[in-house]
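Summary: Need help interpreting a holo structure output

Steps to reproduce:
1. Submit the protein chain below together with the SMILES for flavin-adenine dinucleotide.
2. Request a joint structure prediction with the ligand placed.
3. Inspect the structure token block that comes back.

Expected: a single structure record containing both the chain and the bound molecule.
Actual: see attached output.

Input attached:
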Amino acid sequence: MGDDLWIEKKIVILGAGVSGHTAALYAKRFLRDKADITVVSPEKDYNWIPSNIWVGVNQMREEDVLFPLLPVYTKKEITFIRGRGIELFPEGTKESEKSFVVYESTNEKTKGEKHNLDYDYLINATGPKLNFEATKGLGPDYHIYSVCTAHHATQAGAKLNACIEEMKKGKHLTLVVGMGHGTCTCEGAAFEYVFNVDTELRRHKVRDKARLIFLSNEAALGDFGVDGIQLEMAGYITPSNILAESLFTEQKIVWILGAHVKNITETQIEYESLDATTSILDYDFAMLLPPFKGHLLKTSNKDGIDISDKIFNTNNFMKVDADYTPKTYQEWKSSDWPKYYQNPTYKNLFAVGIAFAPPHQISQPRKNSNGTVITPSPPRTGMPSAIMGRIVARNIADQILGNNNPPHSASMAELGAACIASIGAGFTKGSAVSITMDPIVPNFEKYPETGRDIKSIFGEVGRAGHWIKRLLHTLFIYKAKAKLLWWIIPE
Ligand SMILES: Cc1cc2nc3c(=O)[nH]c(=O)nc-3n(C[C@H](O)[C@H](O)[C@H](O)COP(=O)(O)OP(=O)(O)OC[C@H]3O[C@@H](n4cnc5c(N)ncnc54)[C@H](O)[C@@H]3O)c2cc1C
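--- attached output ---
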């Protein structure tokens, strides 16, 4: 059998973010010339999103968190197409059974053109659709800043600077940071940003002129969408809300919890609370994260019948090997969470990172008496997203190479995670809250008391965490650029 027969296998990856880019680099490393790998993604640059926080407080520039993808893919002999996946035909059509995806070009010269791309394996790594539309007045097109993209973060940084200049002239301003809807996720990012804003205000000696408010859908500070964490600190088991409350109190940051933001004007934020009251908050600057949806890829069977609702959930996240049976909070099991990120209907279809449909929340679901859902959606942070990308690449490579290895798994109910939330930048002044948890999704069968392995949970506030976070910025960008020995750096 000639070697050239191998090349028939085509892997298409939609999305060149944390999970998709990781999957592409590992697929190439595992398979070399034994498969044809194509990445389709709309932007020309890779964005190391966690460092957008520092762009949003003017401690980094856009060029520090972005780099062009094409040179990396050219070096690695991965085809890169600037485009957006829009439709899926996993069974092909009546004429041909070959699976294909339709993408729309985002390249300047061919913008809007639609093309078909055949695949043997498809990885959906399209990340979040920033759903600013969910709340009236939310987002940079209206009155509210975001740090979800490097460009949004630059806009937030510029407005923050303008506010600082006004405060220097003696004005007192209200700055609000948090979540722009009752069902948002990524509370850790807002937590990190509010402390970085606090540091920036202190650096400019205007902290006394600012009323700094953290506005969140969490029922308790430090919930982070994972039902909080029980930490062992100085020999005592301490819930993360105690740690978070002491940090907020120390820095004089006011917190408002259990809030669903529902309407925003140029000067006011209207929100509904868990106790069903509605309140108005006047503001001068606000950075509120949007809720996330998935990117729907309209899916048809070979007869052209729309089967999107079988492949995607109502929020447009792709269904994988999870148990999606509706259950109550008390019935949730760690085994509900997917291990292989493989679609149950089409085994050559995978979804990783934020694109996969979680079986349920991690944080306890809550609604107020008006029926308004106010509860964090499950976070899928960088580390698990990248690990999912790697193991899916590994499993596809094993199938192509005919290896009979048991498939590699990466359930969030088995994976641990480290969260380092910087609370200010600078080599000698920076600090960070560092928290580890294992597993991310509590496993009460294994750890009946707290759902997590208390011995491996760690929480600390200090400069070392800041240095690690800064080092991770350099290491992860080095890895994403696929430089020498990049794979040695863990996800
Ligand atoms: C401000 C902020 C700070 C954060 N800080 C941290 C942190 O400190 N630590 C941490 O672990 N996590 C952090 N996160 C979370 C982390 O960024 C995400 O977990 C991670 O980016 C998810 O990876 P992903 O591949 O699913 O999505 P992304 O990294 O967003 O990648 C999705 C990719 O798909 C592309 N795409 C979109 N639509 C299509 C389409 N139709 N077809 C093809 N491609 C498409 C996008 O352009 C993008 O390139 C932070 C998130 C935010 C917003």
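--- end attachment ---

Reviewer comment: Residues 14-20, 40-43, 49-50, 52-53, 84-85, 125-128, 147-148, 186, 189, 295, 353-355, 380-383, 385 surround flavin-adenine dinucleotide (CB under 6 Å). The two ends are 37 Å apart (CA to CA).
Status: needs-info
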